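Team,

Forwarding the record for the chain on the shared tracking sheet. I've put the sequence and predicted structure together so nobody has to dig through attachments.
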Amino acid sequence: MRPIVEKNPGHDTMFYNVMKKAQENNQFVNEVFGDQSHFFKHALVEASRFCDNILAVGDYVVDELKFMAPEFKFADIDLTYNGIPAYEINLDEKKRSKSLLQQYCNNLLGFTPDFVFSHVTRMTPSKGLWRDLKVLEHMDREFGAQGRTAVLLILSTETSKRRNRDIYEMEEDYKWPVAHREGMPDLSGGEASFYAGLQEYNAKSRNIKAILINQFGFDRQCCGLRMPEEIEFMDIRKGSDAEFGQSIYEPFGIAQLEPLSFGGICVVSNVCGCAGFVNAITGGNPVKNVIVSDYTDLGSETEHEDVEDMLHIDRHRRNAIENNISEKIALELCARLPRNDAETDELIRSGYDLAKHMSWDAVVENYVLKSFHKAMASKHYKEVYL
């Protein structure tokens, strides 16, 4: 399903509404989106129906499997989320890591931000990185009125790790990563495309700036001499006030929730499997540590739309929905950001309490082992459809 979502200009806004309506009509992916047999992963996933059990890492993955072919209604599919890291830290550790990130931002931009945001991810269309900037546009206006500042550190590349000497040379020649140049060893094609939008955002924004660190790793050796010597990778997870992860396609999304136990507010899209896991743990009740954005919400206008209508959801319509939803997310995040140590400490404690119920130990005990035991104990015979 990923290529369908990525390549269609309507992305998740189109796909998940089409899938829901098609399933109501007992239609399947090949009928709606054409023959998918040219893609090798389609054949591999379709063959999973012959397994004794299928573990699906997200609620939407279950639906996507059932959308593959009618034979999947006979398959044994268990919703089995991934686990996330759960580390317990105290307020002083949080403040130390955040202070290092603030110092790095000051070294790069000449000011110390009140908040540091992050997005640690691969550089692919499915990650929806442009949605970060849409949210920041609305937040920038709020921060202007409130007199607050922030920096978003986007740690993302679509290539392998750059050589250290190349990083040092780019840093000296033209102040990488604040400024970039197209072509290796700096910007690859996809990175250059995103950086163009980031430049436009930074040119317009006043109180919130965004920096693309197109490198694999996060320490002084990997990222240049303007990074404090003491910084290590975990500091961007511990010190971040908010982590963005508004993917258009994400079976689960472990990285989006990695800062959770450190008191970071995690902003994820509803199509991420991890959003379903949070919902399962909290019983559907909202929690201050997680904000879920729903860019698939078409409102009441879809009441009389059929599959053919929804297939024509294009970039223009998606943009309108994204602008509306991103404003709501921005206002929600502004309201939830901590204003003092007591509120930060509360986020750390509530985040860890949530994360420990979503750890790998909890997942193995509550999901994986149960599915394994069920598969091994199965004695029935299934009718095989060829």
